[in-house]
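Trying the structure run again after the queue cleared.
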Amino acid sequence: MRILHVFRTPVGGLFRHVRDAARGLSALGHDIGILCDSTTGGDMAVKLLAEVAPSCSLGVKRMPISRLPGMGDISGARQAMVYARRLKPDIIHCHGAKGGLYGRLAARMLGIPSVYTPHGGSLHYEWASPAGAVFLSAEKALAAIGGGIHFVCAFERDAFAAKIGLGRKRHAVIHNGLWPDEFTPAEPAADAADLLFLGDMRMLKGVDVLLAALASLNEQRRTTACLVGDGPDLEAFRAQAKTLGLSEVVRFPGRMGAREAFRLGRILVMPSRAESFPYVVLEACAAGVPLIASRVGGIPEVLDPGTLVPPGDVEALTQRIASAMADPQAVATSAQGTRERLRRDFGAQAMAQSILKFYGEIV
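Done. Tokens:
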């Protein structure tokens, strides 16, 4: 089968999912192509695209794809169609809101099947907000196009059903997975911080909540944090840390790979206001890293309830962190149990096989 993956930004969990799918489907004997944005991702995107290129016999193509809707999307979708026509794919797998727009329209114009994976995206919005009305209206209009929808978690499926509607559309929940070599422990460095954050520097990720909790913790005992990542709100978080008097206990080393970052902290904290099914949760659990996260998205489908806190609740997050730091042995034992459960239930190759089976129901 010839499969083209279309998405916008070559960063984050969506990009990781595409790379895993490409690797797994290629190993099963299929021809894979990638089409994504050329203006984002920086050097890390170039590096990761080069790494996945051997699994992409149909090639890797980049073109400008803007984040926000606009008139450029008409010509962009047409460019995607022209590229797809040259590749002659049997199916186009569209990822995220913009990938869903470009890929589904291209497939429709070419008369070939398509599958759409939201990866959260527009589903983080509500109909009541102006931006939400725009994004969700676009989702609803496009929902009639394509052969099926692949969700990476049950939460995503339920959100889509509530906000857009599934109708009689074929759909499947197929969780993200990891490769066997990822289930190796990541030991913290000798100078590791007490707390670690890893992700995009955006308000959506709740970094401001973590900084507020860190300030409360430091009123009782010195607590350090390493906040790894980059994004549009990075400078706002730097300013908040300074205002809270945290300059000596928090550092921002920038973006880096997950395995490298895991050594920089002893407890990973994910205080997100919204998520779909973040890979970093799987990666951290596979590496045996203790984890505290918000009770949002598909995270409860992976983590034990005792590790979860309400999103945006500084006091609850502060108390949960303090409890974890007071009993590191119990936290380590819990992390080991979660690691073994993930090894059994969340495999990347099994994910690729399930995706392929779903394609077979559509093509």
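The chain has two domains: 2-177+347-362, 181-345. Worth checking whether this holds up in the mutant runs.
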